[in-house]
Write a structure and sequence with these properties.
- The complex is a heterodimer of chains A (about 280) and B (about 300).
- Chain A has about 280 residues and is mainly α.
- Chain A has 12 helices and no strands.
- Chain A has one domain (about 50-55, about 65-280): MetI-like (MetI-like fold), CATH 1.10.3720.
- Chain B has a domain at about 70-260 and about 290-305: MetI-like fold (Orthogonal Bundle), CATH 1.10.3720.
- The chains are: A mainly alpha (about 280), B mainly alpha (about 300).
Amino acid sequence: MKTRSLTLRRNTNRLVSLISASAALFGIAMLTWILGTVIVKGIEAINWDFFTELPAPPGMEGGGLANAMVGTLGITAMAVLLGVPVGLAAGVWLAEFGQQSKRAEAIRFACNLLMGTPSIIIGVFVYILLVLTTGHFSGFSGSVALAVIMLPVVARTTEDMLILVPGALREAALALGVPRWKTTLDIVFRAARTGLLTGILLAIARVGGETAPLLFTALNSPYWPESPGEPTANLTVTIFNYAMSPYDDWQTLAWGASLLITVSILGTTVISRGILWHRSKS
Amino acid sequence: MQRRTHLSLDPAFRWLTLTGGLLVLTLVAAIFATLLHGSLPALKQFGFGFLLSQDWNPVTEQYGALSSIYGTLASTFIAMLIAVPMSLVIALFLVELAPPQVSRIVGGAIELLAAIPSIIYGMWGLFVFAPFMADHIQPLLSRLSPGLPFFTGPPMGIGLLSAGIILALMILPFITSVTRDVFAMVPAVVKESAYGMGSTTWEVMRKVTLPYGIQGVVGACFLGLGRAIGETMAVTFVIGNRHEISASLFAAANSIASTLANEFTEADSDLYLAALVELGLVLFGVTVLLQIAAQWWLRRTAKRMGAGR
């Protein structure tokens, strides 16, 4: 057997430890750099007008993104209404009925495919499906695109959470003569409540910052959102448009919107992770 | 006592939930069918040449995907080149070197990187990172490697290299967290016996942990690859958006996703739109193939791990 000097082995070990610790440090440094930039540049834009006013025309002072905030909330809320019930249903079927059947495997596979599909492709799909056929961009089509992205995420987390519920609980309910649907909705759902809720929150956090699927569905608008059938102002597409514009005021607003989006999404993610972690501890 | 008979809702419940599941299957099929149908005019007009032509001219109605495909592959390649080794050493740090408390905090911070929306990476990339590249990194690279065609040309900050680096940052947390989980699954007894023989941490890592978890690591790389290849906003902000292939990584380029993001709403003719949809079809096809490969690989790994090697 080849022998190597102990000093060499020890020094190699030290070198590798150093490299791996600095790589971890580098990751944290990048996180700090990105978040720091967003906070420092974003805070400049934050004032009362930012939350209450419509965007000002280019070159004019002031203005805010109130319409885009309302629009983003509306589009996301509608996406939740469309995507979450279907996702819950699919998850229930996978966990309670499908289990290891061929059909369930196929649906699981489709879920993974859909989760791996780039969000811009979902945008193109919904554009052809809803925008081309109706002839105009609309907030509703944006919601549909986000719902398509949420659907597989909600389905898989629902399945994972329901599987954790002990089978004995179901059997106890069924033995008392409770019908299957009532067992699932009243007993199993109650036991898995926290998990289901955090799964949905994480799915919302995931689509809340999406831009690509909204680019050619919801588009954008300088006005207040009035109906889901019209192009609808939203924060992320506004960031994209304003960042690419040559006007300083607009770029500042884009940073403000970035801060708002980052804080809401990281906040939602951290809270839901915290709930999950807390629950697994207790 | 009379037994109460009532219409059972169970079959209805079962069918209702099944409909939700089948909708997912339908959606995947519908996306494929829609993209295929939408790209028919371009498929008829250009045939296979679409994939091999570099022309992209809306005025003369000539469309070719080569520069977009090249940009997608090149930026993804740069991202993987940076992200894979870094993820491995970070995972090593988290599992083997750091005390549990530190490991949890650092691990959480790295995972936070994954939660930042891609448009924020785009903003940061365009306004902060690209100028930094132009002022510091790119001049340094050209000075260090005179004569290399990759690092020539004016240091503009934006371009393939910057896009690749930002992509690397975005996929780093995904690969790291899967790799960390895989490393943590290595039975302590196996590692302890290696330590007992007098191995250093690095030797245990290289000869025990890595060989044990290599399949999981490969699966993690597939996931990162799939994510990098379709990433849109971060790339669109910094890649420069030019339909031309250049040997230099400093040059502005484009990717399939960035072309779609920039030009889709501008497509004013049927053929233009069809060409863009066909780009989308190419991207969708590639990600589906990657997913299938990743799934197949992970399943094989799970079986082997389950059998207890």
